[in-house]
Amino acid sequence: MVAVLNRWVRHVPPWTLYLAGLAHIVWLFWLGETGGLGPEPINALERALGETGLKLIIVGLAITPVMKVARINLIRFRRAIGLTAFLYISVHLLVWLLLDVFLLSEIWADIVKRPYITVGMAGFALLVPLAVTSNDWSVRRMGAAAWKRLHRLTYAAAVLGAVHNVMLAKTWAAEPLTYLAVMIALLVLRLRWRTKPRSGNAGGMGRARQGPEPVGKGMSA
């Protein structure tokens, strides 16, 4: 069954994820325009975009555990998942900047005075260099080792995004806490695998065939 799934996945082009992400964003805006997001469409749009971006980061973090445990290889989609997550989070930020706050003075005041916004902006700032260098040219230009070190920022950005989501809820809501718990569990798992001594070539068989790793090496544990 796993072998069949892996063969099927190889026929799915990663660019379909970009199209699906763009279509979903357009659909969310259409819902907001037509009253499908409730009485506070801007707030609902912000939350939907931010939460979808966070979910995609979690999916990216889960790719390596899924490959190691279930032997399902989704590595070829990791770059597309990481960049699509960045797209959602960028649009989430733009909605807040242009539709919610708008005034420059109020934007800066919110960033300084509201801790959940400060945390969210810090997470976004860490994602920017990762998105910019999410291409094979950057891997060659920087060198694989330096590129991998830079992309470890994904870990911090992921945690900051999950904390931002918890703080935004302003209550101990189950869903944001679940996202944070899953994020931390995946990162702890990644850390354990990094520090665990490898035997033979078992730990590197998958990577040997992958070539330069796509965006968000740190977005998969």
UniProtKB/TrEMBL annotation:
It holds the Pfam family Ferric_reduct. It comes from the Bacteria. The keyword S-adenosyl-L-methionine does not apply. Binds 1 heme b (iron(II)-protoporphyrin IX) group per subunit. Binds 1 FMN per subunit. InterPro entries: Fe3_Rdtase_TM_dom (IPR013130), MsrQ-like (IPR022837). Heterodimer of a catalytic subunit (MsrP) and a heme-binding subunit (MsrQ). Belongs to the MsrQ family. This is Protein-methionine-sulfoxide reductase heme-binding subunit MsrQ. It comes from Marimonas arenosa.
